[in-house]
């Protein structure tokens, strides 16, 4: 009978790092389970929208190609749960399409979206 309270405490303590990370000044938190949609700027930049409508600029490391032609993308954080904030060295999963193999596009940086910033060249 004491297992239920222990599980509740454990679940709450596992979510604390994600909550703490999202409240640090100057740090953004795009949670893996909150990704709602994205726009591909080029093969190194995505603009990702979360379920609350907040936008993020996600910079990818070189090596991925033809991202504009994919209708599905997956986002993987190494934090262990959907509550984890995506960050550097996490990745975007690109499913195989038109004879191309699946891709893992590693994230180099995530920032709050700034519509006034210069858009990278395509």
What report would you give on this structure?
It is a single chain. It contains 1 helix and 6 strands, in the order αββββββ. By secondary structure, it is α+β, with helices and mostly antiparallel strands. The chain has one domain. Strand 2 (45-50) and strand 3 (55-60) form a beta hairpin. Residues 4-23 have low confidence and may be disordered.
Q: Keywords for this structure?
A:
globular; 1 helix; 30% strand; 122 residues; six-stranded antiparallel sheet
List the helices and strands and how they pair.
Elements: H1 3-23, E1 35-42, E2 45-50, E3 55-60, E4 74-76, E5 91-94, E6 103-112
Antiparallel strand pairs: 1-2, 2-3, 3-6, 4-5, 5-6
């Amino acid at each position: 009978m004491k297992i239920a309270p222990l599980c509740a405490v454990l679940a709450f303590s596992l979510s604390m790092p994600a909550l703490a990370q999202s409240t640090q000044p100057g740090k953004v938190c795009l949670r893996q389970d909150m990704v709602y949609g994205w726009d591909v700027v080029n093969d190194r930049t995505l603009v990702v929208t979360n379920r609350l409508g907040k936008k993020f600029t996600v910079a990818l490391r070189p090596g991925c190609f033809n991202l504009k032609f994919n209708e599905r993308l997956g986002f993987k954080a190494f934090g262990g749960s959907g509550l984890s904030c995506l960050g550097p060295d996490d990745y975007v999963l690109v499913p195989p399409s038109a004879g191309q193999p699946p891709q893992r596009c590693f994230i180099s940086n995530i920032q709050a979206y700034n519509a006034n910033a210069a858009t990278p060249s395509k």
